[in-house]
Every structure is written in C-alpha cells, then in structure tokens.
Amino acid sequence: MTSPLSVQGAGAGAAPGALVAANGQQSSDQVQMISRRFVFGVRQDVKDGLHYMDDSTCVWAAGKSIVVYNTQLGTQKFVACTESCEAITAMAVSSNRRNLAVAESGESPCICIYAYDPQGGSTKFRRKRVLQVPGDIGSREYVSLCFSLDGRYLVSQGGFPDWSVVYWNVEKSKALVTTSVVDKGASSQDRRLISQCSISPKDQNLVCVSGNGIFKFFRFSEGQLKPAPGGMKGDPMNYLAHLWLPPEDRMIVSTDNGDLLLIENGEYKYPLPLSPSDGLSIDALIAHSKGFVCGGDMGLVTIFERSEDKELYRKMRTLKVEAERRDADGLASNEESAKVLAFSLTPPPSEEYLGLLTSNKQLYTLNLSNADFTKADERVCEAVCQPFHAGPVTGLDVCIRKPLIATCGKDRKIMLWNYQTNAVECAKTFATEILSVAIHPSGLHLLVGFPDKLRFMNLYGDDIREFKNFGIRSCSECRFSNGGQYFAAMHSTIIHVYFTYTCELIGHLRGHNGKVKNIQFVAPDDTRLVSVGNDGAVHEFSLTDFHKVNDHVIKAITYNAVAADANTIWAAGNDRKLRQFERAHLQQQMEYDMSNAALQCLAISSRMKLLIGGCEDGSVRVFNTFMGEKAVQDKDAAKERLDITIENHTAHTGAVTRIALTFDESLIATVGDDGVMTLWDVVAPHRPPKKDFEFTHEILIDKRDLEDRTKAILDLQAQVQELKQRMEHQQIKRERKHEEQMSKLEVEFKEEKARQMSQLDKLLADKNEQAIKFTEHRSEMEDRHRLDLTKIDQDYSAKILALKEQETKLKSAIDEQRSDFETEMRARQDAAGDAAMRESDEHRRQLRALDDNYSGLLDKKGSEEERASELQKLIESETDVEIIGLKENYEKRRKEQEEEMAALQATNSSQLSKENLSKADLDAKKADIAEKLKQQASLDMQIEGFKRDIDALNNELKERSETILDKDKRIYDLKKKNQELEKFKFVLDYKIRELKSQIDPRDEEIRQARSKYGEMEGEAERYLHNNEALVLQIRGLKLKIDGQVKELENLGGKLQTADEFQSRLWTELSDLHDEKNPRRLKDMVKVLYTKHTSTTTTVAPPGATKTLGSRTPEDAQREYNRERDYLERTVSGLKRKLVKDSETNRSDRTRIIGENVVLIKEINELRREVKTLNASRKNLDVTALAASAEQESKRELDIQRAEMVRLRGRIEQLERQLHAVGRPVSIATPALV
C-alpha cells in the first residue's frame, strides 16, 4: 500500500518543491494510480493571488496547490503545499521574478520560498526554503507578504488576533524581528484589521503597514522594528491598499470610499485631484513604468499616468471588467460586476499584459500595448485559461458519446467543459439556484434540478433550452441510466423514474424514511438502481416491477454516497466509515475506518478494481476494491483491520461535493465547495489498453432556427449575387470613366508639357543672363575685396611701426630714469660716508634714515619697474587686441561677402519662384477680374432696381403726405363731435343706471340656475356611487363562484383518493385470490385485515371508506351539475339587473347633462347680450341716441322680461320632470316681475 505522503501531487505527500506535471510523471519510485491533469478554478481570497513570472507564465492558487499556467501552450503544472497546510493565504514575487513566496495557514503558519527557473523544463519551480517562526506569532495565518527590492529580505503580516509583523532574512531563513502592529492593550475583533504590508524600494529597512484605521511606518534598526515618523493626519479611514512609486519617493494609498491619497517622504499631502472618490472601494494598486493602475468595487479599473502639471497624475482611462452571459430566456446580459482584488504585470520592460483577480473567482488579462481604450464598447479584457464557477459546485456528470463534462453551481450557472481541449463549450446562467445536473449519454439532453421544478433541456450548439418540466421540487439528485433510456430523480423520500424519449413517468421507488442522498443505476443492463439516504438505509430496486429487492438499514448514521458494480455495493456515511455490501442479499461484509474525514462522493472503476472517493477535507482517495473482495473470501483477513487505501491526493480546500468517471475509465473529474473542478488522468499500471472510441459530432438544432438560418443563407447568397452584379456593373462604368479621364489627362498633359517646356526655355535664358550678371558682380566684388585687403595690410603695418617706435621711446625713458637714480644713489652714499666720519650718532641716525629712504626707493624702483612692465604689457595687449580686431573685421567682412553671395544665390532662386508665383497670381487675378466684372454687372442691375424702388418710395411718400392731411382734417371733425357727445353724457349715465337696475334680477336668476345645476351634478355623482356598489356586489358573487369551484375540485380530489383506495384494495384481494396455500392465505388475510383496520395506517377509517364507497360518481356529477346551473342562473340574473341599472343611470345622466348644456348656452347668450348693450352705449350715434334712447330702453326691457318668462317656464318644466321621477325640488320658483 502506498502512503499518502509518497504520492505526487498529494499535498504534503510530495517532496519539498515537487512539481506535479500535467502529463502525470511521477516524482518518486512509488506506483501512482491517478495524476492531476488540469484545474479549472482559483482561490480568490489569497492576498496578491495572481502573478506573472514571465511573459508566458502566470501562477495562482487553486485548492492547496499553486497552478503554473503557460498562456501560449495552454498547459498546467502544479506545485504542492506542505503537509501541515490548511489553506494558502498570501503570495508575493520578487522584483526579478526569480523567487515566489507562498504563505500557508495552520497550527504553525509558514512561508515557502520557491525558486523559479524559466529554463527548468518540467520542473521550473523548486522549493528553496521554508520560513517559520520558532515560537508562536499569535495567529494561524499570514495575511500579506512583500519582498525587498533586492529579494534578500521579506516582510510578512500575521493575522488575527495579535497582528504581528515579521521581518525575515531570506538567504539565512531567519526571522530577524517580530513585533505587533496594534498597540498594547488594544483589542479588536475585526478579522480584516490589517490588509497589506510592504518594504520601501529605496530603503529596505523601512516597512509600511496599512489597514482599517491603521497606517504606520516601522524602521528596522539595531535588531528591532521601531515606529518611524510619518503617516496619516485627520480622522482614520479604512486603508485598503498602498503602493510605493520609487523614482519620486511617493506613495499612493487607497480607501474604501474611492479616495487616492498622496504620501511624500512619509508625510500625508493631499488626495489626488483625479481620484474617483465615488464611494466605491479601491482594493488593488500596481505600479507600471508610466504611472499606476487601481481597481476595486464594481469591477472598475482606472489607469493613471504621470504628468508634469500640478495634478501629478492624469486619468487615462476607466474600464469595467465584466463577462457576458446568457440568461434563462436566451438574451445576452451582464453578470453582476465583481470586485477587483489583485493585479499582476508581465515583467518590464514590456509590461504588455495586466492580470486581474476578481472576487467572483475569475481571472482576466488586459493587453495594455494593443488595446484600443478609445472605444467604449470594445471588450478589452479576456479570461485567463477559461471562465470558472463563481461559487460552490453542486452538480457534475460526464457524457459518453461526447467528451463533455456538465457542472452546475450555486452561482446559478451551467457549464459544459470539453476535457480533450480543456475549454468551455457552453455556459448559461439562470435566474434561480441549480441543485443538480445530469447529461444524457448522447450529449444532446440535460436534466437540471431547480428548487421549484425539474427541467428536461436540450443542447442546441452553444445554447441550452427547456423542453419539458416536471413538478419535482428541490431535486438535489438526478441521473440518466447508463444506456440513456431512463432517468431518475429524487423527491424527498421517493425516487421517480421516467422514460427518457417520451418523458413519461413509469414508476415510483419507495422505501426510504429519510431524504434520498445518492442514487446510481447498476451497469450494464440498467435493470437495478441503488440508493442511500439520511435514514441510514441502502436500498436496491428493480426497474422491471419497481419493487424493492434488498435493503440494509443502520439508523444511527446518514449515508452520503453509494457505488455499485456487478457483485458489490460500497456505501460511505457521516460516521467516517466505508462499508462493503454483498449485492445478492445486501449484507454488510466489511467496514473500513476513514478516521480523519468522511467520504462525500464515490465513483467505481469495475475493470481496474478501483474505488475513488471525495472527502470532506478536500482530499481525493483511491481504494483497492480487489483487496476488499479478497478479504471477504479470506475469513482470517476479514477479522483483522484492513486498509484498502492506495493513495491520498489533496485537491480542494472545501469538501469534495461530486466525483465522476468517464466511460472508458481514463479520466476522473472532481468538484468541490471551493468552486474548483479538477481533472485527473488514471495512470494505474494495471489499467487495460485504451479502447479506440470515436466521439460523435452531432448536435441538436431547432427546426425554426434551421429554417431561419437557411433563409438567412439564401438571403445572403442573393445579396452576394446582387452585389457581384452591381460591382461588375460599377467596374465597367469605372473603367469607361477611367478611360475617358485618361484620354483627357493625356491631352492636358501634352498641353501642359508644351507650356512647361516653353517656360523652362524662358527660365534657362533668364538663368544664363543672371549667371552672366552674377559672374560680373563677383569679379567686381573680388577686385574690391583685394583692394580693401591691401589697404588693411598697409594700415596694419603702419600701426605696427608706430607702436614699435613708441616702445623704443619708452625703453630709452626707462634707461634714463634708471641712470639718474643710480647717480643720485652714489651722491647720497658719499655724503652719508662723510657725515658718518664726523659723528657716529648722526651717522647712525642718517644711516637709518638712508636705510629707510633706500627701502622706499627700492619700493619705488619696484613700483616703477612694475609700472613699466605693466605699461609694456598694456601696449603689447593693445597692439594684440587691435591686430585681433583687424583680423576679426577682415574675417567678418569676408563672411559677410560670402553670405551676400549666398543671399544673391538664394535671391536668384527666390526670383525664379517668385516669377512662377507671379504667373500663378496673374492667372488668379485674371480670373478674379472676370469674376469682378460679373459682380459689377450684377451690381449695376441691382442699382437700376434700387433706383426704381426709390422712385416708387417717393411716390408713396407723396401719397402718405396727402393721407396725413386728410387724417388731420378728420381728427378736427372728430374733436368737434366729441364735444357734442360730452353734452349727452348725463343722459347716457341715467340710462346706464336704469339698465343696471334691470340686470340685477337677471343675475339672481342666473345664480339660481347654477345652484340647480350643482344639485343635478350631485345627483349624477350619487348614480355613480350606486353603480360602483353594484360592481362590488358582482365581484363578491364572482368570488363566491370561485370558492364553490374550488370546493368542487376538493370533492373531486376526495373522490379520486377513494378510487385509488378501492383500486389498491382490489389489487391486494387479487393477490389473495392467486394464493393456493390455505394457511398462507389465512396469514395474508390477517395481515390485510390488520393493515386496513389498524389505527396507525394512513388509509381513511372504515366508516369513511363505507361512505365513500356508497356515493357513486353519477351522484357527484348530478350534484355538480345542479350547483353549476344554480350559479349560472344567479350570474345571468345579476348581469341583467346590472345592464338595466346601467341603462337607467346612463339615460338619466345623459338627460341631465343635456339640460345643463341648454342652461349654460342660455346663460352665455344673456352675457353676450349684456356685453352688446355695454358696447352699443359707446358706439351710439349722438343724433340717433338723443331721439330714440328712451324707446330703445323700453324695447330692451320688454325683450328681457319675455326672456325671463321663458326661462321660468323652462324651470317649471324641469321641476315637473323631477317630481315625475320622485326627486325633491330644493329651490322655490321665483315670482314673476
């Protein structure tokens, strides 16, 4: 038996740093049964859980292993963790991409350092050393890691509750210092208090730690980590990430509200002006050569670049990481955006790809060099490897005729994987959680269990569509038979069996007292089905008569999984034991203790005699079933404790939920609560030769889709043909047009060539003339230059002679002064000698005076000599300066002449170009002159028109002047009339007062009519309320009808129950009829009597049975018909009453509205008459008004009285109508005036 510690890829079982290759090669001499091939999934809660080691290799954590993925070849290799590893919590890579640090949690957390060799072939990673603190760091995990710039030192941040930071010397594998980040005495229950630790790229002794309300610097000195100055100011915030920017000695710190804070030299400055600050957290930061990238909530990724302005960094682009999916209706939509947790860049200088790790367990890559960020609709992010499940995987099944694996999970997604190409064939997301999935052996159908129903679905290429659903709720286990003709689904304690091709229920399998946990069709004929449940029972059912064949019950346990072959059944329970049963009588033969983990799922290989199980601790175990069968035959061995475990592989971090074996038993697939699916190759040495099995390539397609696609193809072909004809026609037209253009261009070219040749000849003649002139001018300039040079040489020689004469004179003067000085010195020395001989004292005094004088003379001599030398130097320098100046002037004049010659040449060329330009300008001016002439002609025509307009305006002016005179005369006449009208003002005021006295009664009548109109409106509202009450009564009657219909349905259900009871009773009596043995017949009758008369039975009591039996279906039908007739008559009567009331209400309302309209019209006519009277008062002719004012007013009064009488008669008529219908009259009829 192979120990779990000696198996490659088995977590702690691999040698230190062993690399588990995808091709299944062994790392030791032990025989291996299975080897990991490919992993689909990632562990998202690992700090910095994604890293690019080079341009084509990236690593991430999946389960308890590190996945090494080649992005170019699409292959994977695996690095196993240590034996004590519980989970991977953090990762870090050195700046030179040669060392990878992996933090493992456990009782004694450790950090593994792996050396990366790009040229290492199949073993690119080698475990270099393991870093572990000798004592206790006060935590079970490390939450963050970071290398120094040179890779010699490493800082690690411990977790809850002590939050200790450890500073490591990587080369010596030694912890230099350990200290707690939180203050002594402070306690916090926040398990995410610290989020990141890092080492400064400029100073490897400076450490930064950030977290929720914590941002501190520590400096390593004298063997201790001491707090360093600097940090944040103001109120503490939740600092999620920080980033060092080495060239400027700056730091960027992100917070949970979207702020990016700037730190310079350890001191807080200010938030970046372009930071998002939108309330969305920023959880990840990474630096690149031009700036940095930040990402966080809602999948937002923002790219910043350095700028020279005061903002320091400018925002280049913000994009959203999102994945397209198809919902249950087949429409494309976007998944809920996840949070970006980690970044990784390919090594410099390329920095071509940016990797992203999101909180929904997905890996994306962004091509920074080729992506066009200006297009908002372009999907610039692509999945690394393949899309993964975002939550625990709950269902798994393998197809036979196609290389497909179907999975479902709590992320509401179904995914189909091709295990040959390691790619996702199809993925679809649904609105509700998915509990189970099974794929048909043909690969054309799916069986999916939802909380509300079981759905039978068809696979149409890249889409999944529902075909039929069944009313089975919370189906957590469903399975197709090996041949595909049946499928079974569990519903609580019952297993429903259907015929696949008609979806017809063919039987129920009963016998479990608890929920069914696992079912399996027994190969090869699918006539038997094995199931286990929460009741501790193992049942074997026959699918020919749908009865239980054998069972075995242990009530103290709950079974999780079952597997069966031709002779043996294997069952695993929650008591961490594996039990072996004989299929013939379902008796337990052996029991194997798993000790440290319970098996959650099983798969059996009949040909290789292997049993593969998934455990609750995430491990995959391989058992030897041959040894178990052999132990049953050997009774002595059966008495001993036997271990049939061959090997143990650590695959998942959570429990292994499902396991499946392909039809040819060459591949194993496992899924777990961590959302990871792992593929294993069966590499057992005794495996049979691989069968030549060819997979099918057929797919289903809906007839409507096929017709639509055929129609689209035909339409496209017609369009292509039409486009071809159109393009050919256009090509012919273009060719003809091009030929015409070519002939025209050839003629134009010949004309232009002739014109250009004539211009060229003219220009050559002009050039020759200018060359002759230039030659003459050049000779003149050279003669002039030669004369000037000779003159300058003569002047220079004369100046040199004069300077030399001046120098000779100065030297002779100096010699004369020197001789005079020496003569004077000798005379004074003689006088001094005579004086010394006379008196010694006087001699000493004079000697001293002479010495002083001598020293002064020496000083004077030195100064004179210095003056002479300075004067000489000055003269020489002046002569040198003058000579240099002359040379410079000469050189300057020579350069000026050369420049003048170059300018003349440039002038010559410019003159030629100007001539060309002048010719072009001349042509343009000629065209302009022609255009001006046209404009002048049009202006002349406009001037003529304006002259005609002026004459017309003058005539109009004369006419208006005459009109003004007429108006003035009329105004004078009107003023006179106005004076006359003033005389009759008193008379008009009197008439107005009389008319007002007549209008007031009319207004009173109008108010009374309005009050009547209001009452009529109230009456109409009462009719509406009555109508609504009738509608409510109708609704109540409808509800009563619905209640009676439901009651009838309940009665029908009771009748059906009674019929079922009667059929069961007849079936049991028929069984008694076939029995020939009287004794056995008596016993069976007793059992039947006990069953139907016992108080514990679920069948109705005998009295109820008799009542049900005496009531015939015809009586129930007659009762139903009688109730239905009564309800129909009631409804028809209510409808007739409703129609009658509605008609009455509508007619009354129409009549009242018509009367109101008539009254309103009459009121408006009266108002118009009043306005007419008021207006006529102003327009009355003075003479006519004086004669007939009194007569007109009397006539108006008579008309108004007659109108009032007519209105009163109308009102009385309306009141009589109201009395006729029984309505009260609230307003009394006013008396006649």
TrEMBL record:
Keyword Protein transport listed? The answer is: no
User: Which Gene Ontology CC terms are recorded?
Assistant: ribosome
Biased composition (Polar residues) is annotated at 905-915
Which terms are listed as keywords in the entry? Coiled coil, Repeat, Ribonucleoprotein, Ribosomal protein, WD repeat
Q: Sorted alphabetically, which SMART domains does this protein's record hold?
A: WD40
Coiled-coil regions in this chain? 706-770, 1156-1217
Note whether Lipid metabolism occurs among the keywords. no
Name the Pfam families on file: WD40 (PF00400)
- Each WD repeat occupies one of these ranges, namely 649-682
Q: Would you tell me the protein name for this molecule? A: WD40 repeat-containing protein, putative
Q: Which organism is it from?
A: Bodo saltans (Flagellated protozoan)
